[in-house]
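Notes for week 9. Today we move from apo structures to complexes. The key idea is that a small molecule is not decoration. When we ask for a structure prediction with fe (ii) ion present, the ligand SMILES becomes part of the input, just like the chain. The input block below holds both the sequence and the ligand string. Read it once before you look at the output, and try to guess where the molecule might sit.
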Amino acid sequence: MTTIDEPTTADLPWHLRENRAPVTDEVTLTGLEVTGSIPPELNGRYLRNGANPLTGTSEHWFLGDGMIHGIELSNGTANWYRNRYVRTPLHANPGVDRMELGYIDPETISFNFEISTANTHVIGHAGKILALEEGAFPYELTRELDTVGPCTFDGKLTTQMTAHPKTCGETGEMLFFGYSSLPPYLTYHRVSAAGELIQSTEITVNGPTMMHDFVISRNHSVFMDLPAIFDMELAMTGGMPIRWSDDYPARFGVMPRAGGDADVKWFDVEPCYVFHTLNAYDIGDEVVVHGCRLNEIWRDGAEVGDPDSISDDEAPRMWEWRFNMVTGAVSERQLDDRFSEFPRVPDSKVGLQGRYGYTMSTTDDKTAGEIFKYDMADGGSRTSHVFPKGQFPGEPVFVPADGATNEDDGYLLTFVHDETTNTSHLTILDASSIESDPVAQVHLPRRIPTGFHGSWVAD
Ligand SMILES: [Fe+2]
């Protein structure tokens, strides 16, 4: 199967044009062309999720059916590329809205959390591979990307699950939350390193805030109660029912990881929205949070990412907040003026003070993409890998090298789309020498659409 999809036309909505257009088939490809040398210690699968509407169209970039793209590597060889839809009730009923499928029962005002696009992230935890979407249960997948079914942690999960759980780099515990348009608006969960759900706790927030992500430190979980809130009037008209509110306070809540609602210390911050945090850590009396901050979002509508319409206020930039747990003081500052999103740190550093963070550049350079490397020990100074003209990477995922001694001894993996050939490749960069040419590229005879988040799931 080597067909190259034709570029789509300019009259489609932004999220369906060019490389955001869905691919129309599922394939398994072997005998992949490789340039460079795949590091032999990379044994596992790089997986990435994204919205790929089965009908070819969707109301919003965030609403298409989840499709996982994966490449398996072992002993210096690329064994296969696969792309597979996550088999959800929405996939089984193409074109049917989740409300029509019974996502909310109007009699009992309760949710059916099996109704999911499962399109946002894919992670490994406790031997399971989970596809995630923030309005529903996770969906378990096999190593070959076939769908097992919804995962409820043995029936213990009774709320939505965010697509951005945080697995502690030290303990392997997975911490997450579910947010809802209906009370209770926020519920916090802890899953042990062995995969057992051991805590579910309601947390009080000011209203139905869209909480896409959160962050953990060694001792704390940090919630972002920000002014992007669910709007019933917008919900009745279809599409993305979220709007900005100047009346809704922006605040971060810091809670001991095994704590509860009464333990949350809330800190007012400058109004903002944060889709994605980089990481957090405890130091002295402070909790330090890094993330990609927008001044505001969706004041005039919920379109995202369109380079032709994004305003400076809606551009993401690397930011630092410091919360003093003793005095209640907050300080915050911008670390970089470049547009920077899809932040990641090494899995082993989640919740801990690490030195480096990695992001991809967004819309301020339309000719080629970049992967950024931030050195937080140097005030957030930035270096970057600049891709050749017409090549655009996604979120960079760090994988450590065998025998690593420095934090950046390892590789950055991401799918890259080449506009000049309309094909994609997996690129493997040396994280310790990010400016250098890729260590290896695994070439595909077709494109992988622009997507969301992914993971390296080691054997
Ligand atoms: Fe996300």
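The radius of gyration is 21 Å.
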